[in-house]
Amino acid sequence: MKEEKLQELLHSLTWTEKVGQLVQLSGEFFNTSALTVGPQQKLGISDEILSNVGSVLNVAGAAKTKEIQQTYLEKSRHQIPLLFMADIIYGYRTVFPIPLGLGASWNPDLIEEAYTIIGKESQAGGAHVTFAPMVDLVRDARWGRCLESTGEDSLLNAAYASAMVNGLQKNLDKQEGIASCVKHFAAYGAAEAGREYNTVDMSERRLRQDYLPSYKSAVDAGCKMVMTSFNTYDGVPVTGNEFILKDILREEWGFDGVIISDYAAVRELIDHGIAKDNKEAAYLAMKATNDIDMKSPCYANELQPLLKDGRIDGELINQAVLRVLKLKNELGLFEDPYRGASEAKEKETLLKEDHRALAKKVAAESVVLLKNKNNLLPLNPQADEKILLVGPYGDNQELIGLWAVHGQTSDTVSIKAGLESYLKPENLCVEKGCDMLESYDFLGEFGATKDMIDSLSLSDEEKKTYLESALAAAEKADTIIFAMGEHTMQSGEAGSRTDIRLPQIQREFMKQLIVLNKKTILLSISGRPLVLTEEAETIDAILQVWFPGTEGGHAIADILFGQTNPSGRLSMSFPYSVGQLPIYYNEFKTGRPLTSATHSGRFVSKYLDSPNAPLFPFGYGLSYSDIHYSGLTLSDTKMSEELTISVQIENTSNRACLETVQLYIQDVVGSVVRPIKELKQFKKVQIAEHATVTVAFTLTREELKFYTCSMNYEAENGTFIAFVGPNSTDTQEAAFELV
Ligand code: NOJ
């Protein structure tokens, strides 16, 4: 439809019809033939608005979306189709690793391929928009939503943000991908104390420097929508924050797409205490240019009264409606309200073999080898050794994590199945050993009934039997592989925790096997960086495998047996203890650094009971190859516009590898305090066995810019240090002058 026609359509709508376009309701409001009344009554939305609602939340499946659309359009005066929006965060039916695992791939091109597949599958399943990517920068592993983020670094996050948007929206005009809604704008990842939905308060400099680049990158890549975050920024909840939404997003960045509130976030302006009632909440959100009200009665019931009172200009509403109509038009919904989705297409698209193959490749690149004492890994599948796979995640398909709502665990390759493809049956023993958790009571908060909780918990008798049988098997084993981790419900939204070690029952269990002095390997399954301090001391080899997705078991087995050389690198620091949080590699300099020459002993910036450094730093990860960095060379000691920084990397092993070479800088003196290191570039390079490669980076003046004391974004002349290495800690360095 031409823009002119859209304008005509807009002006032919009544105010009720217009407001309807700005309201989003979830699936329970619609059933296949009629609209249900329960939730409608709960929200208190009129039938009139309900039959003009513009979009639906979290309904997927070609048949279901088609039926709802059809029923809706039969009664629609103007034939404006519904938009179907859903949380498709890291996979539709083919589930990729959780985004924190994707972050560890350091391979945005590969992640773009993954999101292209996610886009294709979602389109076939009838979704029009996904609430992804989630690009919130995270520095506090207590926050459960680390799971959804690619990590703690703004440059890396920005690279993934555009890759994900490009993947999802590939061939949008050919009905292949779906529209992307970046979230949660802005700075949701900085919730104080890692507690979900908590306050965010930070300087504008930090906001712009660290937190905004990933959203900006998604916007620049052309994402069609932006979701507001639940948190406050500088005292004002973002959903009603004109500085964040209007000044930065709309005006500075020129974003003319649709802004949607997070779930009930408009109404929550009342709970935050900046609106006294629904009407005021609607007023604040609309004024901040939030277009769609997700799952709250505020816009539905209050925009028209606000209009009548003259408090809201009709033009503001018109613009919001036009943005929604434009999106529908861009997606081709006026021509085909089903957007090419059908059950037949679904059948031929979901979980295709090449989708699974890519999921396996991505999962393999997400796995991080944290420790490998005496090169225990890789295991030799031909060796006539007995392997015990033990732990709650050994024979378990629950490997897709909390936020893969359209994925099915029954499609998932378990770790046991992965190992079976390498080992003779007589060499593999699989035992549960211990329960996942000591108690499942917390599931009650997520709606589990007492019966459900009881059915999950092992009886004392079962616990005893499992333990005895695991101990007996361990006695006979040469190598023990522990498949341990957090319960799926312990990370993701509303999954904040203060004790982020492995569950106690699992730690206690492992201890009983570790004393047997067998070779031990830990597969750590989690939605966040765990505190693995104890395990790093007692276990020989540790692989961080996240929630690895549909092909997890295959990818993990390929790594265990050396078919794949691990190449993942942490995109978020793994703390030594929870007391260090928030922790991140690019911290600022302090007046009394740990290595201070003038202050000694007690009076420097440190803990009395813990190192300052994390257990495993940002960028860290081992491979099965022996890699040596040398010869860091700068093309000049002075830089005006550009500088080339190169380094030699030698692989002295007989295994080819993928090495992620990282370039950091430090701006030694600035008009404001600068971070001790900042990632500027990285390259993931293939290095053949017994080969040496030279990796060169061209650093530009643009990359040295920051928000100066006067809040100008510019580079300041002076001394810089360039660091190159395999992670943020083990680097070679050389200084240069910016002139
Ligand atoms: C709340 C979450 O914060 C957000 O990420 C999600 O997209 C919405 N609910 C919709 O389900």
Molecular structure report:
With 739 residues, the chain is α/β, with parallel strands linked by helices. It has three domains: 20-346, TIM Barrel; 366-571, Glycoside hydrolase family 3 C-terminal domain (Rossmann fold, 3-Layer(aba) Sandwich), CATH 3.40.50; 625-738, Immunoglobulins (Immunoglobulin-like, Sandwich). Helix content is 30%, strand content 18%. The strands form six sheets. The chain has an eight-stranded parallel beta sheet. Strands 11-16-15-14-12-13 form a six-stranded mixed beta sheet. β4 (129-130), α8 and β5 form a beta-alpha-beta unit. The relative contact order is 0.10. The structure holds 1-deoxynojirimycin. Residues 57-58, 87, 131, 183, 262-263, 493 line the site of 1-deoxynojirimycin.
Annotate the secondary structure layout.
Layout: H1 3-12, H2 15-21, E1 23-26, H3 38-43, H4 47-50, E2 55-57, H5 62-74, E3 83-86, H6 99-103, H7 108-124, E4 129-130, H8 154-168, E5 179-185, H9 204-220, E6 225-228, E7 232-233, E8 236-237, H10 242-252, E9 258-260, H11 268-272, H12 278-287, E10 293-294, H13 298-308, H14 314-330, H15 343-349, H16 353-366, E11 368-372, E12 387-390, H17 415-420, E13 428-431, H18 450-456, H19 460-476, E14 479-485, H20 504-514, E15 519-525, H21 533-538, E16 541-544, H22 552-560, E17 627-634, E18 638-639, E19 642-651, E20 657-667, E21 678-687, E22 691-700, E23 706-707, E24 713-714, E25 718-725, E26 732-738
Parallel strand pairs: 1-2, 1-10, 2-3, 3-4, 4-5, 5-6, 6-9, 12-13, 12-14, 14-15, 15-16, 18-26
Antiparallel strand pairs: 7-8, 11-16, 17-19, 19-22, 20-21, 20-25, 23-24, 25-26
Bound molecules: 1-deoxynojirimycin.
